[in-house]
Amino acid sequence: MSQPTHILKLGLPKGSLEQATLDLMARAGFEVRLSERSYIPRTDDPQIEVVMFRAQEMSRYVEDGVLDAGLTGQDWIAENGSKVRVVQDLVYAKAHLVPVRWVVAVPEESKIRRVKDLEGGLVATELVKVTKRFFKSRGVGVKVEFSWGATEVKARLLDAIVDVTETGSSLRANRLRVIETVMTSNTQLIANVRSWQDGWKRDKIENLAMLLQGAIDAREMVGLKMNVPVSLEGRIKEMLTAERSPTVNYLAEKGWLAFDVILPVAEERDLVPRLKKAGASGIIVYPLNKVIH
Asked: Containing domain of residue 172, as a range?
């Protein structure tokens, strides 16, 4: 088999975002197969070469041209000060479709209530440069130490921590109180500036961005099919919001219509019982892989 003439070197994050990213890639149509002993997985797209890097260092390798593109957090791009092309904001995290927050946190019993109360204090974080810039912008003098993980444990040994949170549950479990948000961050698809100027690579990256965003959008949507008597067509349509206009076709059985519509998951669970009571039948709800707007 001949080798492809074009290759896109794509970095995927290893670590906390790893599984969520692999799941997203699969939903977007790209199967990535990992080996326990290799940082270079295999993919079913012969034009994409995947390399696994920590999110913390991804933007540096994209900036330097080691990678053409990569997925990493907005936080680590800011921390590294990397000059890269941001192609797409992709709002997904370890467990939820939400951005993450870097927050200043202190023990619940601490007397510290405001950022300025930390003047002269000691703060631990992984996000050192961003944290230093944050306190400098507030005119608060603190010493910022790099934390090698388990940052929450250090909150009672130091004056405060700056840590990342998705839902806040871990902070609450450790009896920590948030006093301010340093930054909000989401995953971004970034590209090397020179690679972005290459026509083939740019097209490949843009297509990847579209499919990944479509996979994210689909996670909160479902497809719904149902059979509706012709006499109830108007009534059923009224139950669907204007932006959820269905596709309607006549069935082989006289007097019946087939409705097909895409709905948010939150709407579907309330709507289906109402549709059934209104006279719809053969209702089928199915998951979606991608929704391309």
From this structure: 100-185
Distance CA 94, CA 111 (A): 32
Tell me the per-residue pLDDT of 185-213, one tens digit each, with 9 for 90 and over.
999 999 999 999 999 999 999 999 999 99
Q: Measured between alpha carbons, how far is residue 33 from residues 83, 90, 267, 288 in Å?
A: 30, 22, 35, 22
222 DSSP β-pair partners: 263, 287
Instruction: Render pLDDT for 87-122 as a digit per residue (tens, 0 to 9).
Output: 999 988 655 567 899 999 999 999 999 999 999 999
CA distance 204 to 164: 32
118 Cα distance to chain centroid: 32
The residue-averaged pLDDT of 127-147 equals 96
Both 207 and 243 in one domain: the answer is no
Residue 2 in any domain: the answer is: no
**18-28 helix and 199-218 helix, angle to the nearest 10 degrees:** 100
Same domain flag for 124 and 75: no
68, 195 contact by CB (below 8 A): yes
Q: Which residues contact 124 (CB under 8 A, 6 or more apart)?
A: 144, 145, 146, 147, 151, 154, 158, 161, 162
pTM: 0.85
**48 and 28 within one domain:** yes
